Amino acid sequence: MNILGISCHYHDSAACLVKDGKVVVAVQEERFNRLKNSPDFPINAINYCIQEGGITFDDLDYVGFYEKPYLKFSRMVIGHLRSWPFSLNNFLNTMPNWLQDRLVIPITIEKEVGFKGKVIFIKHHLSHAASSFLVSPFEEAAILTADAVGEWATMTYGVGRGNKIDIQKEIRYPNSLGLLYTAITTYLGFTAHEGEGTVMALASCGEPRYVDKLKGIVMVKPDGSHMVDERFFGFNKGSRMYTNRFLKSFGPERKPGGRLEDRHKDIAASLQKFTEETLIAVARHVQDKTRLNKLCLAGGLFLNCVANSKILEQSGFKELFIQPAAGDSGGSLGAATYIYHCVLNKPRDFIMQHAYLGTGYPSNYIKRVILNRGVSFRELEDGELSRFIAREISCGRVVGWFQGKMEFGPRALGNRSILADPRNPDIKEILNEKVKHREGFRPYAPVILEERAGEFFNLECKSPFMLLAPMVKEEKKALIPGVVHVDGTARVQTVSKAINPRLWHLIKDFENITGIPVIINTSFNLRGEPIVCAPEDAISCFQRSQMDYLVLENFVIDRMKNNK
User: Fold this and answer.
1) Average pLDDT by stretches of 10, the chain with 564 residues
2) What CATH topology corresponds to 177-322?
3) For residue 429, what are the CA distances in angstroms to 71, 260, 367, 425, 482?
């Protein structure tokens, strides 16, 4: 049984292949077309899924799409009518996309790949719910989803049991924590669908002085259900998501790239605190209603690792599962798994233990790429490679690390990563200067041996997908200053020897040299670009940055030797 899942047309397009209930391939379109957060129909991702799955399009039994376009279209039309005539420009700009692409998905699929079989459409938030629960280790769990908006739903909760999902309640557009977060992200001068993580980091630099004002424009009940005062927001009315009334209340908007004032930091802090408090209230309500101890989270709002940690700490749930592509790209995973388990009534026997579901390249291909680029390199055996790179990192070198199969989701988890020494208090400035060129307040994440995580962080569970931000233990902060955020947290990734032995051994060798089982891990990309996919992308990124080494499987490229 072969099922292809697809998500596209808004942001973070992706494709996923499920074979006999197992997720064998999942990849985002942006990695192939090199357009960050690409909304395009994921033709490259689809082709890779079919190729890597060892099948043809004739072997597909079903294609699943991650939402119901006609239901979403009805919401768009009603929204435009409610906002008329202020929504005229948006209406004129978006309707051609609906008529050409979004309402004719089966025709597009047949035209692009020749598939004439059955296409099944799953509600957006049901796809989110399936993407988490159906690949979780839980036989029974509560499910909470939250994002900007699907068709009408912006937040849902329910219960998963076995291969069934029961959505029990939903909050509907325009009442949306996700849209609130994105609107204020753009108000603060950052890009929608990309800058939310920057705002989360900025929040730690300010004081939550505007929480009461936010509570004045978003009414929240004790159970976390909420209602947005639309007078402050214009989701369909023009080029911005907030109104003049919002500007009068919060002050002038920050222009992209403009100076960050204390006011901006305080607004970010207030937004983050308000979001956390609301999500915790919702989660507590869900726990009270379901009386379950396990919780599955999905939707773009749960890429907020700070909020996730506080939900785990304060909601009453004992265990948490969030799959790595919690945003819209994960909808492709949810669509495919929902069809297999819930529509076809097949039992579950797959657990998502890692995110390494994308492209991988054999050594002979990588060597050919390096030779064609005329780059000087050397090849090392596994043990020698690990010890050499660990030593170079301990000496302050910055390393591009390209190994195995690419990660699914927005986080680099050790296969398409840039690695550095967390002991250096100046490492953020060094990485920003050499590679990332991003805002100085943004933290860098630690990757740690799974079995040692509890020694350095207030973390009682695994965090393989870098979606939790626990506090760094007070006595360890001076040992790893490069990964401690201003609020004392760190966005942790734990590494299992069984799941990623090469990365585990590298960290272990670094510990043998330094006594610290932690390395900095940040995504292998330059600012504004997707994470590298192919060896060609990695070499290009390396040559346009000031990284000291590039490691492509067992091939090592030394910048100094290539600058001669």
Assistant:
1) 96 97 98 96 97 96 94 73 66 67 84 92 98 98 96 97 97 95 96 93 96 96 94 78 94 94 97 98 97 97 96 96 97 98 97 98 97 95 98 97 98 97 95 86 95 96 96 97 96 98 98 98 95 98 96 96 75
2) Nucleotidyltransferase; domain 5 (3.30.420)
3) 48, 18, 33, 9, 10
